[in-house]
Amino acid sequence: MHRSRTQIATSYAPGSLFTYEGGLGCCVSVPVSTPYDPSSPAVPKQLFEHLEEFVESWFERARRCREAPKILPEQCVDDAFLDYKQQPLVDQGKFVLTRPSRIGFVPDPLVFVCSDCGRLLEFDNIVDLHRHWPQANKRTDCQKSKSNLHNWKQMDVIFAHWSGNYCGLSPYRWVKAPDGRVNQIRRCRNCGHEEYQLVTNSSPFFSDWKFQCVKCLTQKDLVQADRETLDLLKPRMDAGHGNLPKEWNMLPVSYRASSVFYVQKDNFILFRGSEVTTLLSAGRRRDLLARLMELYDFPGTPLTDDEVVRQLTGNGRVTEANEYGQLVDIRAAIPEEQRPVLDKQLNEKRQQYEVEGLIGVQRDLSPALTRQAEESQNWARRYNPIRLSIEHASLRSEVIDREGTDPVLPAISVLNPDVCDIDPLDVTKRASYTDRVHSSLCQLGIEELVMLRRLDICEFSFGYTRVSSTPSTTVKELDMPVRLRAFDYAEKRRRPIYLLEQKNEGFYVRLNEQRVMEWLIQNKLDADLPPRGNMRLGGLLIEQYNDFGRFLDDYKERTAESKTQRTLPNYVYLLLHTMAHHFAHVVVEYSGLDHGSIGEYLFPADVAFLVYRRGMTPDLGNLSAMWRNHSDAILGDLQGDRALKCNSGSLCDQRGGACPACIMAPEVSCLAGNNLLSRAALSSGVPPGWDVDRAPLVGYFRLQGSRAIAAA
């Protein structure tokens, strides 16, 4: 078989069940050792930071999914993710970074059914299958076949359990004996015979299917215990801890169903500088606070004139220090009514020195910011605005601010006519292009739009779950913990993590901060706007942020329960996320790429986001060619009403304007699993279902007037 690297790392990752080429049968993927050396030491460092946060979050949520019966650590995550104290731990020594270029597979499950009489045949393993298949294929005891030969077909239904285990649709049940051993009961309880047939009663519902002894015709239900969970929980039930058989009974399901295998994966932008990996450590908390206050212009006490002169002198700018000191002396000597002119000159010089880095900015430490910096260690990494702020600053310095026309540079602004290969000598056409694009961006409320020529993105898959893709699922009205499983061993004592390093094109989009604040004000979030002093919106967002949680439990759209307050952080994220999807939908239409090959990355405190091509096939310049050939059409569609209308009509309108027909994307590519998303954020309408405030939203594209924030 030939599969792409992305397919091997996801759909065909170890543990997945799939139909072999030509539909010849079912196989299960097994790992093959193909170690991979990452391009930079920053790759494994950032990868394991993300993995550790993922595992800890999964563990905590799985353990808290119910109060009783008590959930054990082994039910939450694989032993590869636990230490000797049964606490979550990601030990790098247990894993090996692997190139997703090869995958093994073996036939499984080894349960066969005669398509004529329903007789079941089960093999213990591949060796058993190879040894006894010739005999089974020659059996002549089929009573519904003219030749009396069985027409064996591999059974396409399996038993699956949220522990991550599965087995074939076997009539042989696992039970725990009084001596503590788990045994398999193979004989019929009535006559002692060991062979069964499957009776489906021509029903598509598994609840109507039965196992039937071929000798005495005694029937029994399709019930099978997960051997591992039975061994773990049956003693607790016997000891009176409240555990029940439905906790270890497996579910019959077709191996083609998506619930059989959910690959668990994550992605991150690769930052080669050290700021992201070091500034966020606990030992550099003071440096982090200073950096955040600098990034978002936190207000502070101005430096005294003597301190300005001292810092200028200390930085070797004696001439500037003398000029500034002379102005201070003159100001002190003239009448008070004449001082405003000199005050203005002194302020201008001070601002100039600050911009040039000749003097520091004495900012007042915010207690709220200090508290948030401490709390941020417990926030979900994917939505943590402090971490994303530092990442955004690194992205700006490493990529965005290095934009230019030279092809070796990593970025180029779409306002630059060279992005469309317009003749440098055609001044009129170049000016016309720039004016058109600038006008459209202003109407869209976009402050900056930059084409990224090479964006370093790392995607990795490290494990899987069954039955559910989230840390808990409900079975027979009881919440069950879903166990996060690591891939099976690729080499001795080490489990694979499939890593994809990509250099692909993308777009960086930053919204107009003033317009975003106006949008927040018109949607009843004006209590703290505008921010105090000259502080940027991002500083206020960080101060007010409450952890979204790794799985956005308070923002699930499927429940449509109004249970979460409208806040500045969640509404800024809602706007950015919706804008990113809106932009991605237009990109898909003109680029030739599908929705699954488009990724997103959000920076809420900086009202910015990335939309990029994800995939391991050669980057043929889809996005740059798209912009070069269709820039006017793209900008027109972004502003047009057609892209913000839904084919589902009132159903989508009444639930807040977010469904697969309008603004959603495949969940495998959506950063937030299609939560915190609503086209009403752009085009006005009903708020999302989680919002307690049911007042209609004013869309970002529908703002009335252009009033200044200061006057709002």
Mean pLDDT: 90
Integer-rounded radius of gyration: 31 Å
Structural class: alpha+beta
Distance between the termini: 63 Å
How large a portion of the residues is in β-strands, by DSSP E?
A: 15-25%
Largest sheet: 8 strands, mixed
Which percent bin holds the helix content? 25-40%
Topology at a glance:
Layout lengths: L4 H5 L7 E3 L6 E5 L11 H22 L31 E4 L5 E4 L3 E4 L5 E3 L3 H12 L14 E3 L2 E4 L5 E3 L4 E4 L5 E4 L10 E4 L10 E4 L5 E3 L5 H12 L12 E4 L7 E8 L5 H5 L5 H11 L9 H10 L3 H16 L5 H18 L10 H9 L9 H14 L12 E3 L13 H18 L1 E20 L6 E4 L2 E4 L3 E2 L8 E17 L1 H10 L14 H8 L23 H24 L6 E6 L4 E6 L8 H18 L10 H5 L25 H4 L29
Parallel strand pairs: 3-22
Antiparallel strand pairs: 1-2, 2-4, 5-6, 5-7, 8-9, 8-15, 10-11, 12-13, 13-14, 16-18, 17-18, 18-21, 18-22, 19-20, 22-24, 23-24
Helix pairs in contact: 7-8, 8-9, 10-14, 12-16, 15-16
Provide a descriptive summary of the structure in words.
- The protein is of the alpha+beta class and 712 residues long.
- Helices cover 31% and strands 18% of the residues.
- The protein is built from 18 helices and 24 strands.
- Strands 3, 16, 17, 18, 21, 22, 23 and 24 form an 8-stranded mixed β-sheet that branches. A 3-stranded antiparallel β-sheet has the order 1-2-4, with no helix packed on it. Strands 6-5-7 form a 3-stranded antiparallel β-sheet, with no helix packed on it.
- Strand 1 (17-19) and strand 2 form a beta hairpin.
- The N and C termini lie far apart (63 Å).
- The relative contact order is 0.11.
